[in-house]
Write a structure and sequence with these properties.
The complex is a heterodimer of chains A (307) and B (384). Chain A has 307 residues and is mainly alpha-helical. Chain A has 11 helices and no strands. Chain B is mostly helical and 384 residues long. Chain B starts with 40 loop residues before the first helix and ends in an 8-residue tail after the last helix. The chains are: A mainly alpha (307), B mainly alpha (384).
C-alpha cells in the first residue's frame, strides 16, 4: 500500500512537472528577474529529479506539502487542505450515513414483499437511480426544489452555521445519496431474498418465531455481513461524485479545489489534492480487507491458526 | 489399430463367403431423425433475449438515439459550430408540436413595465401572447409577459431551432446529436480498447498460470489501487483533452476488470478434457487460448462491454463537468450539460435535452446489459 502510494506520488509529481509550459508563463507583467527569483524560491530552476527529491524530503521529514503558488499565494498547501477537507467530508459522510439505513430499509421491504408491486416499484427506482448520474439529479433538484419553489437555497451558504448550514446542504446530500441508496437496496434485496430461502430460516420459523422475528434476528444479520464490502468502496464513489456536485452547488470543498487548481495551474495544490484522493481510496481498500476478517471470522485468511 | 475381419480376408478363404452373416442388418434403427434445426449459442441467447420485453424496449431506445446520433446533425441547415449572434439563447421551437402547446418558442419575461407593452419597437406586432401577474411595485405597474420569443427578437417566422440555441447562437439540435455521437464514440471505442487489452492480458495470465499469472495479477493490483479520478485526471492533464486521450484515459483502468474476469474463465475451462484433446491433436498455445477456451467467455465479455459503456459515458460527462472535457468547439453530452448548467436558472431548456438523452442512454444500457446477461447465462438470472 505504501508502495502504491509512492508510485502514485511519483507519477503524479512527474506528470505535473513535465507538463508543457512554465507555471509563470502567463504572468506577462513580471520581469525576467522577478520570475527567476520566484523560480528559485520554489526550486523550479533545478532539474526535475532534484525537485522531486526536495519535495519528498520536505513531505516526509517536515510534513511540508509545499506552498500554493497561484490561488492562495504563500499559504502552505496543508493549510488549504485543512480548510477544505472538512467541508467535503461533512457532505460525503453525511450522505453515506443517510443512504445506509434508507437503503437497508428499502432492501428489506423489497425482499420480504418479493414479486409484489412494492418490489417492482423499488426495483424500477433502483434501476433509475443507479443509471442516471448524480449530477443530473443535482441539476433537477437545483432547478425545481431550489429555484422554482424556493424551498432550499440555490447554492451552498458558506457563512451559515447549524441548521441553516444543513438546510443549504440538503440538496447536494440528496443528490449524492440517491445512487448509494439504490446500490444498497439492490444488494440487500438480492442477498436477503437468498437468505430467506435458506434452511436455517426454515428452522427459525419451525421453532416458533414469527416471520418478522425470523427475518429480523436471522435473515438480516446474515445478509448484512457482505454488505460492508459494498458500502466501504461506495465511499470512493461518493467522493468522486461529490466533485461535480460541489461544483454545481458552489460548495468550497475538495472537488472545487481540484478543478480550480488545475485551471489555475497551481501545481503543488493539484498534487496535494490528488494525493489526498489516493490516500482516501487506499485506506478504503485497506479497511475493506480488514473488515473481511472482523465481520466474518471465517473469511480471515493468512492461516495463522493452521499448525 | 485393431484387426478388422472381413469376408475377403485371405486367411478366411477356406470358409467361403456364405458363412459370413452381417449382424444387425435386420435390426430397426429406432432413433428418430430430428425434424427441427439445431439451435446455436447465439440463436439461443437471442431467443431468450427477445422474451424480455424491457430489454427490447431498451434496445429500441438505444437504437433510436444511435440512429439520431448518426443522421441528426444533418437534419438542420446549421453546423455544430455555426455561431450567429442574432440568435442567442432562443427557446426550442418545434413547428410540428406547437399545435399541442409545447415547444412554441415562447418565454416568460418577468417584471416588465405594463406601460412599455404597447411599444412595438420593443414588443413587435403579435409577439405578446399572455400577460400575467399584474402588480404595482414602487408606483410602477409591473407584469410577467409571455412572448413568442422568436418574434420578440425580430426573427422571421420560418426560422426555427428544434432544441433552441445556446449562448453563441449555435443550434442545439445539431450540437446535441453531434454530442451524443461524440460521447457514444468515446464510450464504444474505449470499451473496445479495454476489452481487447483485458482479453489478451487475462487470457495469458489465466492460461499460463503460475508465476506469470502471479506477476501479472500483482501489476493489475497496483494499477487498480490508484483511484479512478486521479488516474484519469493525470492522464488528461498530461496528454491534453482530445478525443483520443479521453478514450485512452477511460481505458487505462477499466481493462483490469475484464482481465480478471477472463482469467477466471480460463481457470474454469483450461483443465477440461476437450482442451486436453485439442492439445493432443497438436493445437498450439495461441490456438488453444483463442480458439478453444476463449469462446466460452463470449457471453460474459459482451455483457461486460455493455456495462462498461454507460460508465464510460458517465466518466466523459464527469470530466466535462470538472473542466477536463473535450476541447471547445466540439460538443459532447458532458460539455452540453456543463454549459447548460451555467445558465440553468435562466434557460433550463438548454440542460433539458442533453440530460434526457444521457438518462435514457444510461438506463437503456444498464437494462440491456441485464437482459444480455440473463440471455447468455440463464443461471445468473435475478442475481444483481
Amino acid at each position: 500500500m505504501v508502495i502504491t502510494l509512492f508510485i502514485i506520488i511519483t507519477i503524479g509529481f512527474m506528470v505535473i512537472r513535465l507538463m508543457p509550459g512554465s507555471m509563470y508563463a502567463d504572468d506577462a507583467d513580471m520581469t525576467a528577474a522577478q520570475m527567476e527569483i520566484l523560480r528559485a524560491k520554489y526550486h523550479l530552476d533545478k532539474p526535475i529529479p532534484v525537485q522531486y527529491g526536495i519535495f519528498l524530503r520536505d513531505l516526509v521529514l517536515k510534513g511540508d506539502w509545499g506552498t500554493s503558488i497561484k490561488m492562495y499565494i504563500g499559504v502552505p498547501v496543508f493549510d488549504v487542505l485543512k480548510m477544505k477537507i472538512p467541508v467535503s467530508m461533512y457532505n460525503n459522510l453525511f450522505s453515506l450515513l443517510i443512504s445506509l439505513p434508507i437503503g437497508v430499509l428499502l432492501g428489506i421491504i423489497a425482499a420480504v414483499r418479493k414479486n409484489s408491486i412494492v418490489d417492482y416499484t423499488t426495483s424500477f427506482m433502483v434501476v433509475i437511480f443507479i443509471s442516471v448520474p448524480s449530477f443530473i439529479f443535482a441539476t433537477l433538484l437545483q432547478y425545481y426544489a431550489a429555484f422554482r419553489s424556493g424551498w432550499f437555497p440555490i447554492i451552498y451558504e458558506a457563512s451559515a452555521t447549524g441548521f441553516a448550514k444543513l438546510h443549504s446542504l440538503t440538496l447536494p446530500i440528496i443528490a449524492l445519496s440517491l445512487g448509494p441508496i439504490a446500490r444498497v437496496t439492490r444488494y440487500l434485496r438480492a442477498e436477503l431474498a437468498e437468505t430467506i430461502n435458506s434452511d436455517f430460516m426454515l428452522l427459525a420459523r419451525t421453532k416458533g418465531l414469527t416471520e418478522a422475528q425470523a427475518i429480523l434476528r436471522h435473515g438480516i444479520r446474515n445478509s448484512l455481513v457482505p454488505l460492508a464490502n459494498v458500502v466501504i468502496p461506495m465511499f470512493t464513489h461518493i467522493m468522486s461524485g461529490s466533485m461535480v456536485i460541489e461544483r454545481i452547488f458552489s460548495i468550497p470543498g475538495m472537488g472545487g479545489l481540484m478543478v480550480s487548481s488545475i485551471n489555475n495551474t497551481d501545481y503543488p495544490l493539484t498534487l496535494a489534492v490528488l494525493i489526498f484522493y489516493s490516500v482516501v481510496s487506499l485506506v478504503t481498500v485497506l479497511v475493506v480487507d480488514l473488515a473481511y476478517g472482523v465481520i466474518d471470522p471465517r473469511i480471515r485468511i493468512g492461516g495463522r491458526h493452521i499448525e | 489399430m485393431s484387426n478388422v475381419y472381413s469376408p475377403t480376408d485371405p486367411r478366411f478363404a477356406h470358409l467361403g463367403p456364405e458363412k459370413f452373416r452381417l449382424r444387425q442388418t435386420d435390426a430397426v434403427l429406432l432413433d428418430a431423425k430430428f425434424e427441427t434445426k439445431p439451435i446455436g449459442f447465439f440463436r439461443d441467447a437471442a431467443m431468450r433475449f427477445a422474451k424480455s420485453k424491457i430489454s427490447i424496449v431498451a434496445l429500441i431506445a438505444i437504437s433510436i438515439i444511435g440512429f439520431m446520433a448518426i443522421v441528426g446533425p444533418y437534419m438542420t441547415p446549421y453546423g455544430y459550430n455555426d455561431q450567429n449572434l442574432d440568435y442567442i439563447n432562443l427557446p426550442p421551437k418545434i413547428p410540428a408540436l406547437a399545435r399541442f402547446g409545447i415547444f412554441q418558442g415562447t418565454r416568460v419575461l418577468q417584471n416588465r413595465r405594463v406601460d412599455g407593452l404597447s411599444d412595438t419597437s420593443r414588443y413587435p406586432e403579435g409577439s405578446i401572447i399572455r400577460i400575467d401577474n399584474r402588480r404595482v411595485m414602487g408606483g410602477v405597474e409591473l407584469c410577467d409577459v409571455t412572448v413568442d420569443y422568436y418574434r420578440y427578437m425580430g426573427i422571421d417566422d420560418d426560422v426555427y431551432f428544434l432544441f433552441g440555441t445556446d449562448y453563441l447562437g449555435r443550434d442545439l439540435w445539431t450540437r446535441v446529436w453531434r454530442g451524443t455521437r461524440v460521447s457514444l464514440i468515446i464510450a464504444i471505442v474505449s470499451v473496445i480498447c479495454n476489452v481487447s487489452i483485458g482479453l489478451v492480458y487475462g487470457s495469458i495470465a489465466g492460461y499460463y498460470g503460475g508465476s506469470i499469472d502471479m506477476t501479472m495479477m500483482r501489476i493489475t493490483e497496483i494499477i487498480d489501487a490508484m483511484p479512478d479520478v486521479v488516474v484519469v485526471t493525470l492522464f488528461i492533464l498530461y496528454f491534453g483533452s482530445g478525443l483520443i486521450s479521453i478514450i485512452l484515459a477511460l481505458a487505462v483502468k477499466n481493462w483490469i476488470g475484464t482481465a480478471r474476469m477472463i482469467r477466471g474463465q480460463f481457470y474454469r475451462f483450461k483443465n477440461h478434457e476437450y482442451v486436453l484433446a485439442a492439445r493432443t491433436l497438436g493445437a498450439n498455445d495461441a490456438r488453444l487460448m483463442f480458439r478453444h477456451i476463449l469462446p466460452n467467455s463470449i457471453g460474459p465479455i459482451i455483457t461486460r462491454a455493455m456495462i462498461a459503456i454507460p460508465s464510460a459515458i458517465f466518466t466523459e460527462s464527469f470530466l466535462a463537468y470538472i473542466g477536463l472535457g473535450i476541447r471547445a468547439p466540439e460538443s459532447s453530452i458532458g460539455v452540453l450539460l456543463s454549459e447548460g448548467q451555467k445558465v440553468l436558472l435562466y434557460y433550463p431548456e438548454q440542460t433539458f435535452f442533453p440530460a434526457v438523452i444521457i438518462s435514457i442512454l444510461m438506463i437503456g444500457f444498464n437494462l440491456l446489459s441485464n437482459g444480455l446477461r440473463d440471455a447468455f447465462d440463464p443461471t445468473q438470472r435475478g442475481t444483481e
